[in-house]
Design brief:
Number of helices of chain A: 11
Largest interface: A-B, 39 and 39 residues
Number of strands of chain A: 11
Distance between the termini of chain A: 46 Å
CATH superfamily of the largest domain in chain A: inorganic pyrophosphatase (n-terminal core)
Strand order of the largest sheet of chain A: 6-7-8-9-11-10
Mean pLDDT of chain A: 95
Structural class of chain A: alpha/beta
Number of domains of chain A: 2
CATH class of the largest domain in chain A: Alpha Beta
Largest sheet of chain A: 6 strands, mixed
CATH topology of the largest domain in chain A: inorganic pyrophosphatase (n-terminal core)
Oligomer: homodimer
Strand content of chain A: 15-25%
Helix content of chain A: 25-40%
CATH architecture of the largest domain in chain A: Alpha-Beta Complex
Chain lengths: 311, 311
C-alpha cells in the first residue's frame, strides 16, 4: 500500500485500535497519538493501545478523546516484529490491518504494510500521511510528531537525519510545536538516580589496547544500592565510544542468572557485529550485542582479550 | 547596511582581512572561513585572522588558499564587542569596515553593521549573504556553515533554533555537507581528560533547598591533578541544571587569586541574573555569572544561603 491508498483506507473505514510496540519510546507513541488525533479530527473513533507510558511522554495525550467503540480496524506504528508487541498486546498478533514503520528489518504480520527505511522516524512517515489526508496539523499533533522525530534522531544528531527530516521538523515548528518544552524534557533532563548511576559507572571506566578500547560496567549490587530501574540504563552504552581515540566501546551489564549483557559500539571501520559474533551475538556494524556467562572478572578478561586481538 | 548592500560592497572591493573573536568557536570560525572561501571564489584576495584554532576545527580550512596581499578591507564575523577581538587582534579595533553578527548586545565599532538577533548563528546570516552574492555553496563552504549553526544551537536543541535554522541546515545537507563527521566530532567526542573531569565533578555534586538547587565545583588542585586546561571546562555549567527537579544549578570554579567564578543556570521562572546581581554579577534570565572571593567552604555557604532565600 502506498500513502495514498492508506489515506483512502483510513477515510473509508472507522473504529481504529492503534498499536505501539512494548516499552514504548517517543517515536511509537508520537506516531500513534498523532494518528489517533487525526482520525478523531475526521470524526472517526480511535484509541491508542500501549503499555506503561513513561511519565515524561504524558503530554502526548493532550487533546485525545476517550471513545467507546468496538474495534473494526487495527493499525500498528513503529512495530518492527510481532514479538515487539509484548505480552500485553499479543492478542493482536496476526490481526493487524495496516503496519506503518521505518525499520528495514520489519517482519510484522499485517494485511497491508508501508515501510520506509529512509525515514528517520515513523513520525516522519505519519507527517506525510496526514498531509495526504488533508488533516489540519494542530499544535497537539505537531508536538506528537516532533517528539518522535527528535527522539529517534538524538535531536538531529544521528546519521539517520536527512535534509527531509530537517524540513519536516521546520514545518512542525511553523505549525507551533513546543520545541522548547520537548527538547528540555527529552534532552536536557536527567533524574537524580541517572546522575548517581553515571557517577558510579564513570568510576568503573577502564581502558585497554593502548586506549583504543574503553570498558564500563554495572553490577546488580550497584543497581540495588542506587535503587535504579532498567529504564535509567538507556544511553549508558554510548559513553565509552564517545571518548577520543576509542575505537571499541564496551558496556557490561550484570543480569540475574550470572551472566552479563554486553553492548558494543565502534568507531572507524571496526565491526561491532563481528566482535559480538565471537560470543554468539550480533547486530549492526557500529552497534551490536551479546550475552556472556561468568563473573565480572572472567567476562571482562574475555572482552579485553577479544578487543586486543582485533585492534 | 542590508545584505544586498553588503553583497555589493564585497563584490566592488578586494583584499579582505576577516576577523574572528578570540577563543574562537564553531560559529565565528565557520562564518569567517565560509566568507573567505566565497570571496576567493569571486577571485578576491581574502584571509582569516584568528588565534589558536582548536584542532577539532582544522577541517574548516579545507580549500582555503593562502594569499599574500595588502589589507584594504576588514570584516568581522560573530564579534559582539571590540574587547572580544582579544589582545592579538587589538590593532584592528576601530578599523572594521563591516561587522556581521547575531548578538543583540553588539557594540563593536565598525563603519557598517549587520546584526540579526533572530539568527541562531552568524553562519545563518552568512548563508543568506552568500545566496545573495550568487556564490556556489561548495561542500567546503557548506561544512563551514553547518559547523557554526550546529554548534551555536547545541545541534538544534537550544531555544534559539528556529524553523528557518532547520531549513538552512536542510539546504546545507542537500549541498553535501558532512553532517556525519561534524556531528560526531562536535557532539559525540569527549577527551579522556574531559571524562576524568566529569567523573571528579560528579563526586562534588551537592544538593540544597530540598533538591531544588544543585551545586558542583572544581578547584585548582583538581585541575592540576587531572592536568586539564580551561578549554575542557566548556559545558560543565549545564550539568547541575539538567537534574530533574533542580531550579537553580550552580557551578563554582576556583581561580588563581583566591576567588571563585560562579555560573548559574536556572529553570522555570527563577531569574539567574537576579541571583548573580546579589554578588555583583549579572547576565541573562536563565544563565548568569559572578565572581565571589573566599575559600571553597565560605563561598559555597554564601551560594546555598542565597539559593535557599530565593527558593
Amino acid at each position: 500500500m502506498n500513502l495514498y491508498e492508506i489515506s483512502r483506507y483510513l477515510k473509508d473505514n472507522d473504529n481504529y485500535d492503534i498499536l505501539t510496540h512494548a516499552y514504548p519510546d517517543g517515536d511509537t507513541l508520537g506516531s500513534s497519538f498523532a494518528l489517533c488525533l487525526a482520525l478523531q479530527q475526521l470524526g472517526k473513533n480511535a484509541r491508542v493501545i500501549t503499555t506503561n507510558i513513561p511519565s515524561k511522554f504524558l503530554y502526548l495525550l493532550n487533546g485525545v478523546k476517550q471513545q467507546i467503540f468496538n474495534t473494526e480496524n487495527i493499525i500498528s506504528t513503529d512495530v518492527a516484529a510481532d514479538s515487539l508487541l509484548g505480552s500485553n498486546m499479543s492478542k493482536y498478533i496476526g490481526k493487524v490491518d495496516i503496519c506503518i514503520d521505518h525499520h528495514s528489518t520489519n517482519t510484522l504480520n499485517a494485511k497491508y504494510k508501508f515501510v520506509d527505511k529512509y525515514a528517520a522516524a515513523t513520525c516522519e512517515i505519519i507527517y506525510k500521511l496526514l498531509l495526504r489526508m488533508n488533516i489540519k496539523i494542530t499544535e497537539n499533533i505537531a508536538n506528537c510528531l516532533y517528539t518522535g522525530i527528535s527522539t529517534d534522531t538524538g535531536c538531529f544528531r544521528f546519521t539517520n537525519t536527512t535534509a527531509d527530516t530537517m524540513r519536516v521538523a521546520a514545518s512542525l515548528m511553523d505549525l507551533g510545536c513546543n520545541t522548547e518544552y520537548i527538547n528540555k524534557v527529552m534532552f536536557e533532563t536527567k533524574s537524580k538516580e541517572k546522575i548517581e548511576l553515571e557517577r558510579a559507572v564513570y568510576d568503573t571506566m577502564d581502558y585497554c589496547a593502548d586506549g583504543k578500547c574503553a570498558i564500563i560496567y554495572t553490577t546488580l549490587e550497584m543497581l540495588k544500592k542506587l535503587d535504579i530501574g532498567d529504564d535509567e540504563m538507556e544511553g549508558l552504552a554510548s559513553i565509552p565510544r564517545q571518548i577520543e581515540g576509542v575505537l571499541i566501546g564496551i558496556t557490561m551489564r550484570e543480569k540475574e542468572g550470572s551472566f552479563f549483557k554486553i553492548s558494543v559500539r565502534t568507531n572507524g571501520n571496526i565491526n561491532a557485529s563481528d566482535f559480538c559474533s565471537r560470543f554468539g551475538g550480533g547486530g549492526h556494524p557500529a552497534a551490536a550485542g551479546c550475552n556472556i556467562e561468568g563473573d565480572l572478572k572472567t567476562v571482562k578478561q574475555k572482552l579485553i582479550k577479544a578487543a586486543e586481538e582485533i585492534l
